UniProtKB/TrEMBL annotation:
It is an enzyme of class 1 (oxidoreductase). FAD binds at residues 34, 42, 47, 87, 122, 287, 327. The gene is fnr. This is Ferredoxin--NADP reductase. Belongs to the ferredoxin--NADP reductase type 2 family. Keywords: FAD, Flavoprotein, Membrane, NADP, Oxidoreductase, Transmembrane, Transmembrane helix. It catalyses: 2 reduced [2Fe-2S]-[ferredoxin] + NADP(+) + H(+) = 2 oxidized [2Fe-2S]-[ferredoxin] + NADPH. Its cofactor is FAD. It comes from Fructobacillus tropaeoli.
Amino acid sequence: MEKTYDIIIVGGGPVGLFAAFYAGLRNTKVLLLEALTDLGGQVQTLYPDKKIWDVAGLPGASGRELIDRLKKQLAKFPVDVQTEAKVTDIVRVGGNWQIAINDGQTSVTGRSVILATGKGAFEPRRLQIDNEAELEGHGLSYFAPDLSLYKNQEVAVLGGGDSAVDLAEQLDSIAKRTYLIHRRDQFRALEQAVLALEQTKVIKKTPKKVKSAQKTADGRLELTLQHVKDKDQQEQLVVDNLLVQYGFLTKGQADTGWQVDLDWDSAGIVVTDQMKTKQPGLFAIGDASSYPNHVDLIATGFGQAPAAVNAAIAAIDPDRGGPGHSSSMNL
Ligand SMILES: Cc1cc2nc3c(=O)[nH]c(=O)nc-3n(C[C@H](O)[C@H](O)[C@H](O)COP(=O)(O)OP(=O)(O)OC[C@H]3O[C@@H](n4cnc5c(N)ncnc54)[C@H](O)[C@@H]3O)c2cc1C
């Protein structure tokens, strides 16, 4: 029989991660769903190397460090986590919430749901060539979660920001040959990352863009690179993999396609006390939530998460005692 979770948290950004931890601490059956391959939301996706100064007790932690710490904290409890699980619908069934994942490929049921969806699900900014969809997963990728897969391969990284430069630099010691293709001569990445790149054997192709890509008979990718200022200047480059690192976009917070009726304003889902939406058992926290003078800060969401979890538990099990202090627990 399908498991019914006490609390399903939608969105694995910093606020969803902390909410999942706190729900685990309170001994509930919890599921955390994240659309992307990596947990960490905006912090991990948009600024992993920037220092964050305004999270209590963590002066000057990088985005990556903050997310690593949240993941470590979450691992304390047996919380189910599904990545690459985009919530595409939320419907009330009986007294529970049924959640469709990836256009109904699977569904899960929860007694309550906490929406920690931030500014909406991120999508990679795609390579604009005709056969992009055909090539994705067949040499063309937007994510590189396991760099060891590129051992002894020829890899082209596309982009000029932090993620492209960092990735090319890391691949240099793993791949047989690494190319970095960027439409400008200068890279936008942090100075430190660009300096590190200079110490590698990465072959830079600038100012160039990928005009087209074709599969070769032996399953590799043949790229046609075009000089951005002189269209007639073209060259062919054959590689095993093309990793596009153009950053991410979101479709917009309210463009969810969910059937559930929620009140949205320009800042997010309107909530009242204890982060309640207008629907019973449905809460919104972090950047996804909206109320007068709400500020989009990680610290704000960290305060909201326990409020929503405690309210969800009180609704599911009114006889359960209050939260207590973690320092009294034997963890
Ligand atoms: C450049 C930059 C610098 C910043 N610096 C700071 C700072 O120094 N200090 C600070 O406090 N704040 C800072 N912020 C703001 C901070 O990053 C956000 O307030 C914080 O990330 C909000 O966390 P969240 O978990 O609510 O949402 P997010 O981080 O946006 O995470 C939401 C997650 O939900 C997922 N999601 C969305 N829709 C779905 C769906 N349908 N199904 C499944 N998953 C879904 C998304 O993929 C994402 O991973 C900065 C923001 C930016 C852009």
